[in-house]
Amino acid sequence: MTHAVVLGAGIAGLLAARVLADTYDEVTIVERDDSPGAVPRRGAPQGGHLHGLLDGGRRLLEELHPGIVDELAAKGAPSVEPLRDTRWYIHGRRLAGDATGMRSVLVTRPFLEAALRARTLTFPGVSLTYATATGLLERGPDGVGGVVLRDGTVPADLVVDASGRASRLPSWLARLGHRTPPEHRVDVDLGYATRLYRRGPGTAFSGVTVSTVPRFRGGGCVAVEGDRWLVTLAGMLGDHPPTDPAGFTAWAATLPAPDIAAVIADAEPLTDPVPYRFRGSRWRRYDQIRMPAGLLAVGDAVCSLNPLYAQGMTLAAQQVRILREHLAGSVDARAFHRATAKVCASAWGVATRSDLAMPEVDGRRPVRTRLLDDYVRRVQLAAHHDPQVARAFLRVANLTDRSSALLAPRLVVRALAHGSR
Ligand SMILES: Cc1cc2nc3c(=O)[nH]c(=O)nc-3n(C[C@H](O)[C@H](O)[C@H](O)COP(=O)(O)OP(=O)(O)OC[C@H]3O[C@@H](n4cnc5c(N)ncnc54)[C@H](O)[C@@H]3O)c2cc1C
User: Fold this and answer.
1) Could you tell me which of 392, 389, 379, 369 has the C-alpha nearest to residue 419?
2) Among 32, 157, 301, 358, which residue is least crowded by beta carbons within 10 Å?
3) Ligand 1 within 6 A of CB of 162
4) Domain count of the chain?
């Protein structure tokens, strides 16, 4: 009888449990938050804020749970073509364009998580236990044989830490005498404020995204299930949106595009604004240490990124796809973390390059980063006029195509021609 334990029933934990169920006889998800019906729930307070599911993540979710997007759409989540049905503003101007060949399903995070949880728990051998993990059980000098809970222990052949950004795994490793992972950080002091509104029929678009480039303030407004608008305002480097209703409305009017303020002006609020403060991106380099056998980490526990780029759930799904590939035979922790470091590096590059383009953000800027950033800025400017550049840019931003797609010769020509206007 083989047994895997997953710590955390967030997006990464639920997806990991789903793939482990194909190989392990039993999969136990250990989750400390016993309020699954709360919206958002205590254990994942970020769930009250805008959670865009990138097209790259949507595709991976469909691979693991065929039909899930149609299921969400049938329950009221708008399913749209990103560039035709939603508006994107970068550098204060709207991207041109029409069809991208992508599909976005617009949902709140609790709605998506509930669907994933329900599906995951139907897999044979998968169960969920409400308990708080507090450490690791040792197996021999260099292995892990389960988890320690606040009251009790759970032996396991494999432990997967998916307990999120606040994961205690580094200190648990230290307690057992193992090395702790080096950590990269880029601080952005980002503030969110979010409010739900009733959505009537007849709006010309299903969503608006206003980038914080170039001057710190941005936001998103998306049509979500339950005929509601989810409106998140975002400000970087301490310029945070207020959470009193009048201040929220006034702040929305300071954005470089008028659409979000227009939605707010006409819609009935359903909630008061709620805040969230995000200090910065963190990447724990488990690929650079020798992890004990039988122990893996995925999701925000490894790499937690500036949420403005909406990569977190997709990155978790990418790591889980790699987990699936590594499950044939006994899992080699080192090979697994080295493989996931590649997808983390790519997402980390997207997020931190954009953040470091702002001189006020602390961090190293190698020449390559500066050159790339300058080129991406030209791509973004060209995307205001050139639908083909807009399409290519948005497909890369959605992690559907690799960043190298932006370096295709015909695109470079278009970006250089239009990006200097
Ligand atoms: C404000 C904000 C907005 C975001 N917006 C987006 C977005 O637009 N698009 C996107 O893709 N991503 C977004 N993200 C990121 C996204 O939330 C995460 O990347 C994604 O959900 C993967 O997280 P996770 O499952 O690793 O961790 P989490 O979702 O944080 O889940 C961790 C789980 O572990 C549980 N847990 C913690 N410690 C223990 C313990 N000791 N024992 C047992 N259980 C434990 C917690 O209760 C929780 O349920 C956003 C994040 C933030 C902060």
Assistant:
1) 379
2) 358
3) yes
4) 3
Domain range holding 383?
354-418
11 and 24: one domain?
A: yes
* Residue 88 one-letter amino acid: W
Tell me the pLDDT tens digit for each residue of 159-184.
999 999 999 999 999 999 999 999 99
Q: Is the CB of 12 under 6 A from ligand 1?
A: yes
- 341 shares a domain with 245: no
170 and 218 assigned to the same domain: no
Distance CA(278)–CA(210), nearest Å, equals: 18
Find the farthest-apart pair of alpha carbons in the chain and give their distance in angstroms, rounded. 65
For 269, half-sphere exposure in the C-beta direction (CA atoms, 13 angstrom radius) is 16
What counts of helices (H) and strands (E) characterise the chain? Answer: 13, 18
Q: Within a domain: residue 334?
A: yes
Two tokens at 226? 């339950």
Residue with tokens 């690791």: 136
Please tell me the number of Cα atoms within 13 Å of 149 on its side-chain side.
19
For ligand 1, whether the C-beta of 43 sits within 6 Å is yes
**CATH number of the domain to which 156 belongs:** 3.50.50.60
Atom of ligand 1 minimally distant from the CA of 299? 26
Closest CA to 296 of 261, 266, 339: 339
Residue 190 shares a structural domain with residue 180: no
Report how far ligand 1's centroid is from the alpha carbon of 393 (Å): 26
pLDDT (tens digit, 9 = 90+) per residue, 338-384?
999 999 999 999 899 889 988 899 998 888 888 888 899 999 999 99
